[in-house]
Specification:
The protein is built from 5 helices and 11 strands, in the order βαββααβαβββββββα. By secondary structure, it is of the alpha/beta class. The chain has one domain (5-195): Class I glutamine amidotransferase (GATase) domain (Rossmann fold), CATH 3.40.50. A hairpin with a 4-residue loop joins strand 6 and strand 7. The longest helix is centred in the first third of the chain and has 10 residues, at 15-24. Belongs to the glutaminase PdxT/SNO family.
């Protein structure tokens, strides 16, 4: 079985934690900083971080057009700032987002860094409840008709999970939380196996480590 090659945009943010999660699943995780780094990849992860800084660095590294081509053809997972880049609108930004997900995303939708929190989410795609880590997280305010909600969070005072925190359109997935900052690999495995259609080992690689809540990402 050929080992899948999955890139992680590594210009800024918590890309190392995603690379660790991919490695724990036996995937060949590769850092992407230049256009040629996209060659031969089966899928791509856009990590959490500072969305404004990421967009400036994408332009500076001449990655805009190569990423647009990749996003139109290959599977992509965006977390926190990554879902902002994938969305249709999120003002103010120094450059337009890529618009591959018909969603409106509010940057820092829950407040400042001090307002970061952990909350249980509901996601049938990964078998039910999942530990959500929200760090200066964005908020999905509108979901277009072409987009499926795959993860929900219970809003304050609500009896049931009602706020979308994970969306999917075809082979593109956007999450407002950080699955890479937990030891739970279910979202990464689901994206790789079910969304991207890649062959992933049945069990995590022995000795591999994943991210921890000590890492920090910002939208």
């Amino acid at each position: 079985m050929r080992v899948p090659r999955v890139g992680v945009l590594a210009l800024q943010g918590d890309f190392a934690c995603h690379a660790a999660s991919l490695g724990a699943l036996g995937v060949d995780g590769r850092r992407v900083t230049r256009p040629q780094d996209l060659d031969g990849l089966d899928a791509l992860v856009l990590p959490g971080g500072e969305s404004t800084t990421m967009l400036r660095l994408i332009e500076g590294q001449r990655l805009r057009e190569p990423l647009e081509r990749f996003l139109s053809e290959k599977p992509v997972l965006g977390t926190c700032a990554g879902v902002i880049l994938l969305g249709g609108d999120s003002a103010p930004l120094p450059a337009p987002p890529f618009g591959v997900l018909d969603v409106s995303v509010e940057r820092n939708g829950y407040g400042r860094q001090i307002d970061s929190f952990c909350a249980e989410i509901e996601a049938k795609a990964v078998g039910g409840r999942f530990p959500g880590v929200f760090i200066r997280a964005p908020r999905i305010r509108r979901v277009g008709p072409s987009v499926e909600v795959v993860a929900w969070r219970r809003s304050d005072g609500a009896e049931e999970a009602s706020e979308p925190v994970g969306v999917r359109r075809g082979n593109t997935v956007g999450l407002t939380f950080h699955p890479e900052l937990t030891s739970d690999l279910r979202f990464h495995r689901w994206f790789l196996a079910e969304v991207a259609g890649l062959d992933v080992p049945e069990a995590p690689v022995s000795g591999a480590t994943t991210g921890t809540p000590a890492a920090r990402g910002r939208s």
